[in-house]
Amino acid sequence: MSELKQQTCEACNVNAPKVTDAELAELMAQIPDWSPVVRDGVMQLERQFKFKNFKLALAFTNQVAEIAEAEFHHPTLVTEWGKVTVVWWTHAINGLHKNDFIMAARTDALLSA
């Protein structure tokens, strides 16, 4: 299996499968800095990224926006002074799909780009 960040997202609809518990464990091992969280009954992936100032945080937010637009898969982005919180989940299925893990891995890759 290729690295998550090199995989492509697939189009999802309401019938797309959510990740299973076994898949969740396997995929989380590939993005260890992310946390699975449940909000309003919906499983999501969340990570906070720290920066030296607001300008760097905003630049990172814009980079995440670019990769989100490229895949037409959009996260929640909260930009603050020195911090960006990114939350991925698949709205169509109200939960986690493999696409979310791909996008989390691509988000991580922005830091090494």
SSE layout and pairings?
Blueprint: H1 21-28, E1 35-39, E2 42-50, H2 54-71, E3 76-80, E4 83-88, H3 98-110
Antiparallel strand pairs: 1-2, 2-4, 3-4
Helix pairs in contact: 2-3
Task: Give an overview of the whole structure.
With 113 residues, the protein is of the alpha+beta class. The protein has one domain: 2-Layer Sandwich (Gyrase A, domain 2), CATH 3.30.1360.20. It has helices spanning 21-28, 54-71, 98-110, and strands at 35-39, 42-50, 76-80, 83-88. The chain has a 4-stranded antiparallel sheet with strand order 1-2-4-3, with helices on one face. A hairpin with a 2-residue loop joins strand 3 (76-80) and strand 4. Helix 2 packs antiparallel against helix 3 (98-110). The mean pLDDT is 94.
Features:
113 residues; alpha+beta; Gyrase A, domain 2
CATH class: Alpha Beta
The structural domain count equals 1
What fraction of the residues are assigned to beta strands by DSSP? 15-25%
Quickly give the structural class. Answer: alpha+beta
Q: Mean pLDDT, rounded to whole units?
A: 94
Low-confidence stretches: none
Radius of gyration over C-alpha positions, nearest whole angstrom: 14 Å
Counted beta strands: 4
Q: Strand-and-helix sequence, N→C?
A: HEEHEEH
Largest sheet: 4 strands, antiparallel
Strand order of the largest sheet: 1-2-4-3
The global form is globular
Quick one: CATH superfamily?
Transcriptional coactivator/pterin dehydratase
CATH topology group: Gyrase A, domain 2
CATH architecture annotation name: 2-Layer Sandwich
What's the helix count? 3
